[in-house]
Design brief:
The complex is a heterotrimer of chains A (137), B (995) and C (318). Chain A has 137 residues and is α/β, with parallel strands linked by helices. Chain A is 40% helix and 17% strand. Chain A is built from four helices and four strands. Chain A has a four-stranded parallel sheet, with helices on both faces. In chain A, helix 1 crosses helix 4. The two termini of chain A are 19 Å apart. Chain C has 318 residues and is α/β, with parallel strands linked by helices. Chain C has two domains: 164 residues, no CATH class; 130 residues, Orthogonal Bundle (Fumarate Reductase Iron-sulfur Protein, Chain B, domain 2). Chain C is built from 13 helices and nine strands. In chain C, the strands form two sheets. In chain C, strands 1, 2, 3, 4, 5 and 9 form a six-stranded mixed sheet that branches. Classes of the chains: A alpha/beta (137), B alpha/beta (995), C alpha/beta (318). Chains A and B meet through helix 1, strand 2, helix 2, helix 3 and helix 4 of A and strand 4, helix 2, helix 13, helix 14 and helix 23 of B.
Chain lengths: 137, 995, 318
Amino acid sequence: MEDFEPKILVFACNWCSYAGADLAGTSRLQYAPNVRIVRVMCSGMVNPAMILYAFRKGFDGVVVAGCHPGDCHYNVGNYYAKKRIVLLKEMLDFIGFESDRLKLLWASAAEGKKFAEEMTNFTERIRKLGPQTKFRG
Amino acid sequence: MKSGAVLVIGGGIAGMQSALDLAESGFRVYLLEKLPSIGGRMSQIDKTFPTNDCSMCILSPKLNEVGRHENITLLTSSELLSVEGRAGRFTVKIRKNPIYVDRDKCTGCGQCASICPVNAVDEYNEGLYYRSSIYIRYPQAVPKVFSIDREKCIGCGICENVCVAGAIDYNQKPEEIELEVGSIILAPGGKLAEPEKRGEYGYGVFPNVVTGIQFERLLSATGPFEGHVLRADGKEPKKIAFIQCVCSRDEKTNPWCSSVCCTYATKHAIIAKEHMPEVETHIFAMDVRTFGKGFEEYARRAKEEYGVIYHKARVPVIMQKPNGNLILKYEENGKSKEEEFDLVVLSTGFEPPEDAEKYAEILGIELNEYGFCKTDPFHPLETSKPGIFVAGVFSEPKDIPESVAQASGVAAKASSIIASERGKLVSKKEYPPERDVTGEAPRIGVFVCHCGINIASVVDVESVAEYARSLENVVYAENTLFTCSADTQERMKEVIEKYNLNRIVVAACTPRTHEQLFRNTLREAGLNPYLFEFVNIREHCSWVHMNEPEKATKKAMELLKSGVAKARLLEPLPFVEVEINKRALIIGGGLAGMTAAIELANQGYESVLVEKENELGGNLRHIHYTIDGKNPRELLEELISKVESNPLIKIYRNAEIDSIDGFVGNFRTKLKVDGKVLEIQHGVVIVATGAKEYKPEEYSYGENPKVITQVELEEMLASGKTPESVVMIQCVGSRNDERPYCSRICCQTAIKNALKIKEINPEADVIILYRDIRTYGFMEKYYDRAVEKGVVFVHYSEENPPRMEGDSVIFYDEILDEELVYTPEKIVLSAATVPREENQEISKMLRIPLTENGFFLEAHPKLRPVDFSSEGIFLCGMAHSPRLIPETISLASAAVSRALTLLSKDRIIMDASKAVVIREKCDGCGMCAKACPVSAIEVKAFENRGVVEFKADVNRAVCLGCGVCHATCPKSAVVVKSFTIDQIKAMVDAIAEEV
Amino acid sequence: MDTETEKIVRNRVAELLNEDVEAFVVFVRKETEPRERITVIKGPEEAEKVALSPLSVNNTARVLLEVVNNFDGKVGVVAKGCDSKAIKGLISEGKIEREKIHIIGISCPGIVDYRKLIAFSPEDVIFEDGKLIIKPGDKEIPLEEVIHDNCRYCRSPSPVIYDEIYGKAREPFDGTDDDEIEKLPADERWKYWIDVFEKCIRCYACRSACPMCYCTECLVDPVNLAISPMSTAEEKAAYPRFLGKTVTPADNLFYHLIRVFHHAGRCADCGECERACPMDIPLRKLERKLQKEIKEIFGYEDEDIPFLAKLDIIPEGR
């Protein structure tokens, strides 16, 4: 398991989390290179099917990152993201899939450090969980 | 000859807002800022009250918008030298100070700063941290250009050696420029008072006494300790005191109230609690002045949910213990107390900006008794000199939303005198016709940026470009030193033509700052700008994996592959163009509505003013005098005669809105006037429905004729009757469970009426029973005057309010510690200001939200105070929140300015990345319509081969492109263009495969 | 549903067909075996065929949805508790106009599970006082013995929307929807489900039988688009396929999870999916788990706006 390099997909909203990831960069905060960020306009546009699909394609962890509650550029998109993900995680748990592989992250444009730390922590968490084989099937 | 340009002095949030409004309504703007970057005070703020929004999150899109606007010229590190001429045509001389970096060459990569050996005090972090000598004020700064602080520079030349762009220029000289402008806006902000003036607080001597703005930096994730609040000795504080009115409401320093500190201290206490749940926070204030929209509820939450403790006390002195802790001595409820804290935050107030006198001299404007810019209460946006306007803290201390509203308001004022020059100096870029790429197989061009060495020193960019060439549909790939440089843009255009490219992928920095630049280049090359995809291999790769070059290179390749995968599926998107009907509908014929109508007419635009009563004037009809001795009757008459005589203003009295349909630019409204229904077409709506005085159910109002409201007292005084003795009770119907908000205006009304009584009869007894006296800003002096004139102020607490027995008022005096009984001639209730019932109807018709209290809810409480989330609808006056005459005028002008950004255009062009329904997949279940945050989707009947089908339909003019619909639809029958499910899936597929 | 209720309903159907109702979605008894099927009758003379008994197992909403727009006039429907839930959902989602239908609501005592009944090899079944009398042999068995498991957890045996209502309902289920599976360790849960979904042949019978799965195009298995004359070749090619053509347990799980997800707050709890499944997959376990969570976490229960479209502001910490 030591040499297992998890592959992690991050959907980051354009207004807060993507900007937070940018700030991590401008501040040269180092984090695990296992993370791949896909930009979306709002965490509320991330389709739950796309999350499952990412697992199906073999990603070991998926993060949906959006604005803090109340900060959404579209006012409420992040609340939709949250309810879907909370529910999806419950269902994943129910079928015995490690729901910890899916993370909802609030990261603001000023939270470069938080973003970087969360990426490293999540990578380590997934590294401990080992390769995701259930959905890769 | 007038000039169609405006000079805006001050690049803070107010100056930025003025600049954007003007540039968007057809005027050229020069934005002057003395610092190297714009953003002002707001850029230093961690969170904004009362929503605890991340300040940078909401500011940074505006920074970029200003930075790249073709009609805004940024003059940073610059100062005003002289101004000549008059309204309509000023000649302005400005000096651009040297920054020793070529502004055009610098790419903002920051290589220089990372090796600069100098440690200088970081002003952005309020001296709590260090910066290099070559520096940028903060990471998101605009313009993204570094500058050398020559006072600190040791001249070692290392930066010049590492700058790949060759931007360092030690010999740069000051440059003088001359501009012709039609009007000038002053928005230089204010200075924060130096707490050294109150030596008894030990600031600068006791290491654990900091100022509010320093505390703000301590809380910030980009601050000195990355958001950890630490004392000078590195320990986390356990007990923090916030001392209010440091250099405010203070005869020795500044007598005025700074208006913002009570709420910002509340915010500091809340955020501190969020950072350190165990910390104790105490706020020491004479009065808690949380009077703004949502502020009172915020303070209540601070108390009830966060356990913030408020003391009604002024702290006279702080002493330090050997361990650095601080002892506060104060009096509360008539008792002397002493308490120990390990950190003290001084909530320092605003002072006039440093350059106030310089501006007064150069511009020939008058300052007021306090050194702020002098304005007239009925003309709050105008300086004493025609053609020169003022917004923000320079005219009076105020918070961000009020400053932003004023900034919009002055934009309307400044452009109204040069309305004839609209559109004359703005550049309209001409683009070649777009090449039709439908049916063509993707031919993708890839540009991989070195960014000097920012990317190339970590990522093997040559290999990445080589890898790009191996990808399907990529017909061209190259490495560039700086992809954003002007010569690369030219090269990109050549390459597009030479290789007949129809998609472009740039692997460089972040789309958040550079996407528009490249999209523009595509347009110049005759390609639809949406055929562009950005891959971030700097902020998201080379800069965050500096020690792992191999992994970073592999990651860069994967990211590029996913970008190419998305690019294959990109479609040319037509811009959403909406024609704009140039007429405004104004709902409400009070002060706000009439002001808006007049401002619009001054700019040459028609409006329809709808008043439900048979007289114009609204609440203004009930105001007989103002606290500052102005005559509101004159104002009322002037306004009425202006709106009635202006041919551009059509007035309907006794009119009711029956229905409103349509969207931005194209509204259709049915009005019911005298039983008849008539239809009006208009492009924008300004909601100015006002508010009204609450009819109290407390204190036997309505039963006991001795009990009246402030409005009734004012009528009585105006009719020549003056009571011998009066008890006024504040906060009747406000700040309670039913109406948790502060009605803002009643403290000043009470003092106004009290002073009036004292003026007529100095012997009259006037007692004001209050919870907090909220005479914010310069109104503080009337509070002082009332005390001088013998008006008696007695505090009461929420738990122990005054009560009535017969005709007597019984109240508890905290200082005497006993209950007093008094039987005055009149008992005057300072009744709440409540929203109008018709707000409910209008909210439904326009699909715009209301707050829990029934006032209208603006698009954003901080930066969009008069906008709604739905485009083309604006808000002003007391329909927004209770407010005074000058504030109402500012807001009305602001709504007009925002409306002008639309009305000044024949059509508006919107971002094309919007939701689209794939009709044949849609079942018309309407889930998307129910979820849409802006109600842009409707299920409609469509005829398809003779069969009527119900399908969802997106109004692209209303859609914001958030994609909540897409993720809600069970079959993805609605997608957001540029972020469609197949595009995202292609990206996921591409990243999933190993390179 | 006793013979008395059956008689009343039969009469009412005849009467209504004489009035303004053009067609009626009803149950009729099969002649060859003790089963009932749903059919559409148009004339009052056909009403004598109308059956109503615990053998009226299927959900009438699905048939109603399919036929309602074939008639200009009103269409009647006989609806048990779960049928009415589906009808209510279909109305709120704009699929059926309330004014176009007449609902005879049936308070439901529960329905028979044919798979249990078959053990008694019945040639005919008669219902009396909550008991079944099996022919030949006149063996009496209580309904509870052969009742559909789904009915044991039925929270609304009485219709939620109707124009008139008959019959006597069983006690609504009032317990919690905890499933024994939840108590298993994660690995065993996974094993359970992957074993279950090993069996799935993705015949989509569950989807076809479900009254709420009316999408003409399914996100996880777009079929119609591929043959639609209206979509361009590019659109067909570009339309994303989430699942492979071959049947794998992980793909099956993906399909079922997403299908269930889309039912959040919309499921009629009728159990048609399970009845339709040829592989005996316990699909209701997923549906019930989902409905339980949206109720527990979000407090969502019987609301007009579908769960996924509703704005919920849930406190931090979840």
